[in-house]
Amino acid sequence: TVSTSSRLDAIRYVYGVPVARNLVKIEASDNDPSSSIFKMDGFISNSNYAAKKITMVLFINDRLVDCTALKRAIEIVYAATLPKASKPFIYMSIVMPPEHVDVNVHPTKKEVSLLNQEVVIEKIQLLVESKLRNSNDTRTFEEQTVGPSPSTPVGTSKDFHANLSQSGSKQQKVPVHKMVRTDSLDPTGRLHSYSQVKSIKSFEGNPSLAAVRSSVRQRRNPKETADLTSIQELVNEVNSSCDSGLLDIVRHCTYIGMTDDVFALVQHNTHLYLANVVNLSKELMYQQVLNRFAHFNAIQLSDPAPLPELITLALKEEDLEPECHENDDLKAKIAEMNTELLKQKVEMLAEYFCIHIDVHGN
Fold this sequence. Notes:
41% of the residues lie in helices and 17% in strands. The protein is an alpha+beta fold. Among the domains are: 7-136, Ribosomal Protein S5, domain 2, CATH 3.30.230.10; 225-295, no CATH class; 307-353.
C-alpha cells in the first residue's frame, strides 16, 4: 500500500470499502508491572458488518503474528453479542516489552504467547465488548435498488406495445421511489410499482388451480380434531389465551425481510414490527400439532429412513464441535437406545402422529 496512507486507508485498499466503512477504533493500555504492560490500538468491525469467516490482522511490536487465545476470546464476544452468522474483522497493533513475548510457540515463530496473557486478553475482551454494545445501538440497513419483477403486470397488450414504441427497444424503468413492497397477495417479498394492481379475478376461472387451492386450504385447516379430552383441553387453553391484537398483526402483516438469523421485519398498517421467527414458528407448529392430532397427512418415502441415522444427524446438528469425533460412540449408543424406545411406541406413534415405523427401525 502507499506508505503515506493511514491505517484505515490501507485496510480500505487491501480489504475493500465495505470493510473499512464498518470499523470502530479501539484503544487500550496498561502500565502496571504487577499485572501487565502493553499498549494496543486498532479497529474492529461493528454490528453492520457481516462475514462468514473471521479475519484478524494482529501486529505485536510491528511484527505480523497469530495469537489463538486472543482471537478466540474476541470471537466469543462477537458470538455472544451479534447473530451467529456474523464473523468479525479485527485489526490490532500491540506494543509491549520484547521480553514479554514468547515467539518459540511455533516452528515458524508466527504463533506467539504473551506474559500475563490472561490479564491482557481480558482487558482487550472487555473493551471490545463495550465498543460492540455501543455500536449495536446504531444498526443500519443498506438500501438496494430493485427493478420491476418479470411477473409485474404491465397493463393491456395495447399499452405494452405503446410503451415499447415510446422507448424503442428498451423497457421503461420504474423509479425506485415509486416502488413498494407487495401486499400479502404476493408474499414472496418482491418490489412492484404501486401504480399497477394485479387482478386476482383471472385465477378464479381456472378450475384446476381452484381445486389445488381448496386442497391446500383443507390441509392447512383440517376440520377434524382428535376426540381425546386432553387434546381438546389444550386446544381450548390456546384459544382462551389468544391475544386479539397480536392475532390481527400476524394475520394481516406484510413480510419485509430478515434482519438476522432470528428476527424478521414485518409491516402492519403503518407500523413496523420485529418478529421473533423462532418463537413464532415454535408456537405455530405446536398449534398445528394440536389441531391436526391423529389426523396428520402421511408422506410415503421411496426409501424408508433409518431411525438411528436420523437421531445421529440430530445429535451432530447440536454438536458445538462438529469436527470432533471423540463422542461418536456415545452418539451411536444414544441413537440405538432411542430407536429401541420408539420401536416400543409404534402403535401410539402411528395412531397419534401418522408416523409408521417398521420392525427394523425404519
